Amino acid sequence: MITKTEVKEVSIYRRSATVIRAGIAKLEAGRNLAYIAGMTNTADAGTFLLKFPPTVKAVNMQLVHIDDVEPGEEKESEKIQERIAELAYRVNTCNMMAELRKTNSNFSYRTDISLDAQEEYLKKLPEELDKLHKEVTELTKAQELLNKELEEVKKEEEKPLIMVELITENAEEVPFLLQYQETSANWTPKYEVRFNGTDKPLAVSMKAKISQSSKEDWKQVKVTLFSGNPVQTDAIPDLKSTWLSFYEPPQPVPASPMMGFMGMNMAASMAAGSAQAMSASSAPAMAMMNMDAMKQMSAMQTEEATVSEEESMTAFELPNLRDVLSDTSGNLADLKNFSVDAKYHVLCIPKMSDKSFMTAEIISTDWPLPPAKASVYLKDTFAGEFYVDSYSETDTFNLSLGNDERLKVVRTELPRKTQEALLKNQKKTQYAYKISILNNSSDSVNVKVLDQIPVSTEKTIVVETSDLSGGKLSEESGELSWELSAESKKETVLNVAYSVAWPKDKRLQEKKVNMSTAVKSGTCKNCGQTGITAKFCPNCGGVM
Questions:
Q1: Which CATH number is 2-65+160-182's, of 2.60.120, 2.60.40, 3.30.300, 1.20.1740?
Q2: What span, in angstroms and rounded, lies between the C-alpha atoms of 304 and 130?
Q3: Rounded CA gap, 204 and 191, in Å?
Q4: Are the C-beta atoms of residues 315 and 307 closer than 8 Å to each other?
Q5: Which fold has domain 407-503?
Q6: Rounded to 5°, angle at Cα 480 from 478 and 483
Q7: Please, are residues 364 and 395 in contact by the beta-carbon 8 Å criterion?
Q8: What is the pLDDT along the chain (544 residues), one digit of tens a residue?
Q9: pTM, whole model, 2 decimals?
């Protein structure tokens, strides 16, 4: 017998899900051979687990295909095909009856039927043909529905079955559970951040975008989201011996004409291979709606998830049962609402951009949730989408609230001066920059300005500052920062002046590196994501 199951509960991790299905098995006393359906083609075949009551003993479990089912077990698709064939026979019969009635309506060669009988037959003929036509229409619709059902059933029959021998002392109907890992499911966090004024904390709503492509819709199931992934077993590293020896440079091998010819052919082949490889119904109602009534509306209220801390990750149990549809752009769920204190200022980095950014500086420990993209709203106006890296190694992080057009910031480089010191055998270049900040608004604005000077990595390269306008200098990164209040309709000027001295027989080279030298990027060992500077991978949630 083939026993169907239904999804009841899913635990979704960042890159997979645990699916729990329920079913009822009808058992006879003694030994029963059962085929349990429900596992998907995207499931991890080695993770299935069956749970039965203590009165039932399950033995000899293995995965099989529908073609491996015992001959006496009729497939669901075969039953549907029999019904489709029966409907086709009835449609054919109705069409034959209609043609026969039309043929019998020709009385030109018949003299044994009276005129009254002919008139009576012709009067009833349209009604009889109409009945047959309606019956054919209904039968055709039933055929179309069965063909769709057959297509779905065939998809189900392509999925693996679990063959199991069940032993019980008494004939009974027993409930059971089927559990397995679904590889096609995942979820990603997303934030909505609302700025309601410089005297108020940020209002943050954490949401989850849930996706699955198992080709099966999960209807009315209990959903729990986990912040990480199931524990993965890694192999114990092999400690290898280290041998020391003297370095011997390789001896050059003279190239032969044949080797050169082969190299040219190989290069041509590689080049050829490379070239081949590259080779709206509600609009009227909205128009009629009073604008004052629209202004009184508030954001839709939704229930939050129940948050609990597990041994190695955080669990978000979603309220109520919900649908998680397959192959959609993502099912959104509300997880947690909270507020976070922030220090607001306008951030200017004139060396990189002439734009100013409204910024919230947040203490990293005050943001209790993992890194993710955030949709930022200035009150109810969308300001943009930004990435929140709350797991960075720094004590604070900045969240952009969008461009601030109140300030005009210009950075001007003044003429350089280069001179040679003959006694010291050195060259020395003096650099000077002028940073102008003009506040065009009617209020004063708190501004944080960032700039930089180069950092020497050699003892013989000397960098000396002469004018920083009171800016705070980081010796390790060369970062310059000012925090000031730009007064309304006034210009604030900052000066940056420094010199670089080096041996005149050497040539300077500049290399751009991240200002935060303490933060080193890495690659996630779980999903392969590169350039990660946080404690956890923003792609899969794995620990770095």
A1: 2.60.40
A2: 59
A3: 7
A4: yes
A5: Immunoglobulin-like (2.60.40)
A6: 160
A7: yes
A8: 788 999 999 999 989 999 999 999 999 999 999 989 989 999 998 899 999 999 999 888 888 888 777 666 667 888 889 999 999 999 999 999 999 988 888 877 777 778 888 788 888 889 989 999 999 999 999 999 999 988 888 888 888 899 999 999 999 999 999 999 999 999 998 899 999 888 899 999 989 999 999 999 999 999 999 988 876 544 556 666 556 544 556 666 554 433 333 333 333 333 333 333 333 333 344 444 454 554 455 454 567 888 887 767 888 999 999 999 999 877 888 888 889 999 888 999 999 888 888 888 888 888 877 788 888 888 788 888 888 876 666 788 888 888 888 899 999 999 988 887 666 788 899 999 999 999 998 989 999 999 999 988 888 888 999 999 999 998 888 899 999 999 999 999 999 999 999 888 888 888 877 655 434 456 776 777 766 655 556 566 665 5
A9: 0.64
Q: How many CB atoms lie within 10 A of CB 231?
A: 9
Q: What tokens were used for 42?
A: 């995207």
DSSP letter string, 294-332: HHT--PPP-PPPEEEE-SSSEEEEPSS-EEE-TTSS-EE
DSSP H or E segment with residue 265: helix 257-277
Domain ranges (residues) in the chain: 2-65+160-182, 76-156, 185-229+302-403, 407-503
Per the listing, tokens 């059971």 go with 176
CB atoms within 10 A of CB 104: 12
Q: Extract the runs of DSSP E, i.e. beta strands, from 302-414.
A: 306-309, 314-317, 322-324, 331-340, 343-348, 356-363, 372-378, 381-388, 396-403, 407-413
| Element counts in the chain: helices (H) and strands (E) | 5, 28
Instruction: Give per-residue burial for 427-443: e unless 16+ CB within 10 Å, then b.
Output: bbebbbbebebebeeee
| DSSP, res 405 | T
Question: In sequence order, which residues have a C-beta less than 8 Å from that of residue 485 and are 6 or more positions away?
Answer: 444, 445, 446, 447
Domains 2-65+160-182 and 407-503 share a fold: yes
For the stretch 132-164, what's the b/e string if a residue is b when 16 or more beta carbons lie within 10 angstroms of its beta carbon? beebbeebeeebeebeeebeebeebbebbbbbb
Strand partners, 382: 377
